[in-house]
Amino acid sequence: MAVNKNQADLARRVRDNVLVALLEKEREVEEELDNIRHIETKISQLRDDEAMERFREARLRKLKETNAKRLEYMNNGYCRLVDVDSDSQFFDVCRNTQYVVAHFYRPTTVRSKYLDEKMHELCQVYFNTKFIRVNVERTPFLCERFNIWCIPTLMIIIDGKTNHSVVGFDEFGGDGFTLDDFSKVLNKHGIVPPDVDKRE
Q1: How many CA atoms lie within 13 A of 6 on its CB side?
Q2: What percent of the chain has pLDDT over 70?
Q3: Beta strand pairing status for 81-84 and 161-167?
Q4: CB 3.0–4.6 Å: which of 102, 110, 116, 128 could bond 194 by disulfide?
Q5: Residue 45 confidence (pLDDT) above 80
Q6: What backbone phi and psi angles, to 5 degrees, belong to 163?
Q7: Cβ neighbour number for residue 64 with a 10 Å cutoff
Q8: pTM (2 decimals)?
């Protein structure tokens, strides 16, 4: 019986030692897994940081390109509302400019002044488009040729051809229209800001 008891004690001690060794090994494996998870997290963060840095660099490059284009256009008479005082000046602008937004106005008309304010703001966004004002009192030939009968009238001219005319404010949504309303009309008729892909 003593032999059986010794064998049982020995078996129990071996089992306990094996259990302790297994628990120790399990703890080591858990620590190693924690280290691996930590390393994977760091790698993921680095990848995210690298991706974010690439995104920032690409965005910065795009902004610099856009600002360089804007400056070039500004130096060529864009980004401001230009007064056109003669028929020949009007035709020169339209012939030499891809996108033109022409406001036929009368200086004493309140709606013309409101439209001028909106055009002045939008010419900064649509910097590849010439925004011009044509005084109908000084250009009767143009008014007759383009059948300008209501003031204000806005003509959208693309590649030297009249693409669309907006008579009054109805198409903008009426009096008190917003820049967004104005932009939607321009976009609908082919005038989009230069940083927007026209294929979208």
Answers
A1: 3
A2: 92
A3: unpaired
A4: 128
A5: no
A6: -90, -35
A7: 10
A8: 0.69
